[in-house]
Each structure stands twice: as structure tokens, then as C-alpha cells.
Amino acid sequence: MNEKAFQAKLKLFIKILKREQKFLVLDDGESLNGIVPQKEDFLPIFEKYTGEIGDKTKMLIQEIQELQETNLLLTQQALAYQKKMMDTIQHSLEKQENTYVDQHRTQSQPKREDIPAAIVDQSF
Which residues of 34-64 are buried (b: 16+ CB within 10 A; e: fewer)? Predict the structure, then answer.
């Protein structure tokens, strides 16, 4: 593959990265699933290229690196947000569960350790 053909592949990869960035910003996980295989298809091309690397090619590679870094940051941000949401929901559910259990016990039955063993019928 000559440098012009390699540059064309780099440009296609840049388009994919820009689409990935758009999907990350829109939080469109379903569309992101289709991007990963497309990116993987380019790996052998990048690994096997042994031709010349001129200034234009270097600029395209630099753009790819910057897009990859931005997309990684967006991904990390989205994951951190999702983790925070899950932690908040879990904390809220635990709080509701404890509130329900405490209210239920005080209204209908005492805690098990509050029942003296002497009044429990053990004649079974």
C-alpha cells in the first residue's frame, strides 16, 4: 500500500472516530456498539503499513491521536456518571428498605431479640 492509499484509510478512520465522538456526546450506546468492530477492522492496516510517512500522514495520525484521547475522556466521563447514578440509586434503595423494615417492625411486631425466650411456646 502506498502513502496515498494509507492516508485515505486514515481519513476513513477519522470519520469513524468523529461519529464515535458524536455518539458519546449523545449517550447513544446502541450506535457505539457498531463503531467498535469498524475500528477493529483498521488495526491490521495500521500495524502492517511499512511505507513512508510524510508530513500529511503525520498530521492525520496526530488528529487520530487527539480524537482517540477525547473519545477516551468522554467514555470515562460517561462511565463515572453511570457509576454515580448507580451508587445513588443503590443508596436510595437501601435507605428505603431500612425505613420500611424499621416502620414494619415497630408497627406490627417487635424485633426477634426483644421477645423473651420464656414466653415462646417451645412444646413442639
Answer: ebeeeeeeeeeeeeebeeeeeeebeebbebb
